[in-house]
Amino acid sequence: MRVLKVMLLLLLLISALALGVWRGLIPLSSAWNPWAPLDIRDKPNWLTRFKLMQLRDDPQLCEQVLNRSSLRAVAQKDTAADTQCPLHNVLRIQGGEIGLSSSFLASCPLAVAFALFERHGLQPAAQQVYGQRVTRIDHLGSFACRNVYNRKSGALSQHASANALDIAGFRLADGRNISVLKGWAEEGDDARFLRLARDSACESFNVVLSPDYNAAHRNHFHLDAGSWWVCR
User: Which of 12, 68, 99, 106 would staple 136 via disulfide (CB 3.0–4.6 Å)?
Assistant: First the structure.
């Protein structure tokens, strides 16, 4: 009976704290307020993934979040709904603090995850290993109207909705290029950096596939904002 009373009191206390935060009576930074929109400038924490999930079905909120990032994004016209791979609420990402080998199409949730990875994962990893910044990301593209692994039948790939990006390498401020294909299997700084980049990507994207996953990914990182959860 005593344990039950203690548990009830704890539940009431938690409820009161939650109500106080929700009504603004108890101040919290936006990063730790579950009702505050995601701010890409805040250091990620255990609430970040919850806030990323909120963007999937809320295009206006996603746009609001992305507008506070450094990414240059241009909204694209929706394609016809009767096409094999219709695109809806898609952006063309033209770069930001880090340059791109070329612009790419992205769903808004993918763009937000990319901005988080760029700021809080990739650059810290480069500073840790090389003491300098990444200045360009080399990618293999995002949108491709195809099934998973280009199979004739089966589920559509996340690439079919511009919800995935394949990254092949990075360029540093001193002009050095780091290739996933060449650097992953080697020993030394490049392999260390690539693994730090892969691991940090798992904090922003739902699916991260590297050369550790299979031979099909030997030359790139597959990053997507789909509904599965894989980090390999």
Answer: 99
Domain ranges of the chain: 1-30, 37-231
State residue 104 phi and psi, 5-degree precision.
-145, 155
Each of the 232 residues of the chain gets a pLDDT tens digit; together they read 555 554 554 554 445 444 444 455 456 788 999 999 999 999 999 999 999 999 999 999 999 999 999 999 999 999 999 999 999 999 999 999 999 999 999 999 999 999 999 999 999 999 999 999 999 999 999 999 999 999 988 899 999 999 999 999 999 999 999 999 999 999 899 999 999 999 999 999 999 999 999 999 999 999 999 999 999 9
pTM for the whole structure: 0.88
